[in-house]
Design goal:
With 382 residues, the protein is an alpha/beta fold. The chain is built from 10 helices and 18 strands.
Length: 382
């Protein structure tokens, strides 16, 4: 059941699977309700009846938002219901094509003690909705709030119960939002959808390369473009590093959008195998635009940015990096090299800092720099 919102359908694996239970998690204010209202509207326009259970906001508030989003399908029913049993009864009578439960933390099962939002309640309500989805074939999406400190009763405790888990990521202060599939019984669990939050809700970002590199200043040290793979598509992102003298006893190491352990390990490798000393220096790294890069291929661009920042030498403008770095300072090849190079080439990033497996076809116009070690990586900065 495609929603017609391309970026959302991509993460869902083509659309909602009939009778499935999907969990959409994310921090408050990230855009979960907005996306689901837009998806509900898109489906309603295709003749699907939607029952939207709102425990978070009043129907009047949601109505106002719907107007702002230009959503006007009259086959969306807003139901202010927080009692799971009552909701189940309502859904059984109306048999909607899509049931949205916003949010699971506001629901309660009257057969159970415990406040709404507690682990027990959240689990019981989800189990009830799962039975409803399976027995009656009602496609259901539940919203789950995640808090920064990873609340106990957050969506994590539900991951194993549902068919698909999607997380809304991104910075509330950035316009860009990424919906990432972390589990999908019916499709690929590595797809992402990219959105931009604007005045009229979320819009899919069709050309992410241009977006994430839009504000890059290639003449400043500490910036490298990475060709990341997000699911089936390559995505160009800017990996930034800042290295400054520390005034602290224990210098700071801070990573945003990149795993901190990766950063620490890479710093150690560079100290040992690239003749770089970060002692007495604070190190900050981030991925521009509020994106998160989880794959090991981030090592090469991260190392380049770190060395570039440390030595105050910018990375050449036409260099693209990707690849994993082992503890011995050797660079390892990563999958999808050709797709990465092609996407980079389109943006004029034609010199490839990566270890390419034998037999890799290098796209016309691109050139391999034949990098195999962190020392060779460092030699690019002159
Ligand atoms: P919301 O979808 O309510 O987040 P969640 O359900 O995840 O808590 O809204 C997210 C934010 O987006 C909110 O701060 C207001 C903003 N927003 C826009 O910028 N434009 C819009 O058109 C809408 C509907 C919301
Ligand atoms: Mg909401």
């Amino acid at each position: 059941m495609p929603t017609g919102i391309d970026e959302f359908d991509r993460v869902l694996g083509g659309g909602f699977v009939a009778g499935s239970l999907v969990l959409l998690g994310g921090e408050p204010g990230i855009g979960k309700s907005t996306l689901l209202l837009q998806a509900s509207d898109a489906l309603a326009r295709r003749g699907v009846s939607v029952l939207y259970a709102c425990g978070e906001e009043s129907p009047a508030q949601i109505g106002m938002r719907a107007t702002r989003l230009g959503a006007g399908g009259d086959s969306i029913t807003l139901l202010p219901e927080v009692n799971a049993v009552a909701l189940e009864a309502a859904a059984t009578i109306s048999m909607p094509g899509l049931l949205v439960v916003d949010s699971i933390q506001t629901m309660f099962d009257p057969e159970l003690s415990g406040a709404p939002g507690s682990v027990g309640q959240v689990r019981a309500c989800t189990a009830r909705l799962m039975r409803l989805a399976k027995d009656k074939g009602i496609t259901t999406v539940i919203v789950g709030h995640v808090t920064k400190d990873g609340a106990i009763a957050g969506p994590r405790v539900l991951e194993h119960m549902v068919d698909a888990v999607l997380y809304f990521e991104g910075d509330r202060d950035h316009a860009f939002r990424v919906v990432r599939a972390v589990k999908n019984r019916f499709g690929s669990a590595s797809e992402i959808g990219i959105f931009e939050m604007g005045e009229h809700g979320l819009t899919g970002v069709g050309n992410p390369a241009a977006v994430f590199l839009g504000e890059r200043d290639a003449s400043t040290p500490g910036s490298t473009v990475m060709a990341a793979m997000e699911g089936s598509r390559p995505l160009l992102v800017e990996v930034q590093a800042l290295v400054t003298p520390s005034y602290l006893q224990v210098p700071r190491r801070l990573a945003t959008g990149i795993d901190t352990t990766r950063l620490l390990q890479l710093l150690a490798v560079l100290e040992r195998h690239a003749n770089a000393s970060f002692s007495g220096q604070d190190v900050y790294v981030s991925v521009a635009g509020g994106v998160r890069v989880v794959e090991p291929a981030v090592d090469v661009p991260l190392a380049l940015s770190l060395l570039s920042a440390l030595r105050s030498i910018p990375v050449p403008v036409d260099v693209i990096g990707f690849g994993e770095i082992g503890l011995t300072g050797r660079i390892r090849s990563v999958a999808h090299a050709e797709a990465r190079m092609r996407e980079a080439g389109r943006q004029g990033l034609v010199r490839v800092a990566a270890k390419l497996p034998n037999g890799t076809a290098i796209p016309t116009g691109s050139e391999s720099l034949g990098i195999g070690t962190t020392v060779e990586l460092g030699a690019l900065l002159r």
